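Q: I'm writing up a methods section and want to include an example of the input and output format. Could you take the sequence below and give the corresponding predicted structure tokens, formatted cleanly so I can copy it straight into the document?
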Amino acid sequence: MSTNKNKKLLDEVRDYMRLHHYSIHTERTYCDWIKKYVFFHKMKSREDLVDGEKKIEDYLTYLAVQENVAPSTQNQAMNALVFLYKKIIKMPLNDEINAIRAHKKKIYQ
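A: Here is the clean output for your methods example:
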């Protein structure tokens, strides 16, 4: 029988979300954000997830400054990462996450 430590991170995310009846859309979206986050930080193992607040902050700031995402997109990424830390790897996020916030896009007519 395999334990959570032997499962791949995204398999664990999918299993948790299906067990708790999350929508398939939410599952796919959260898995995509988690993949992008892991890739951004070049993580190779679960040990690389330590110091979550700082890593989440760096990633969310990158999304706002470099990728110029909408505030709702940045919020979606944050929700996925907070979910990962709290529900899946059970690493509490004790410090504030003070990322640079995305700005609303101006609509010109």
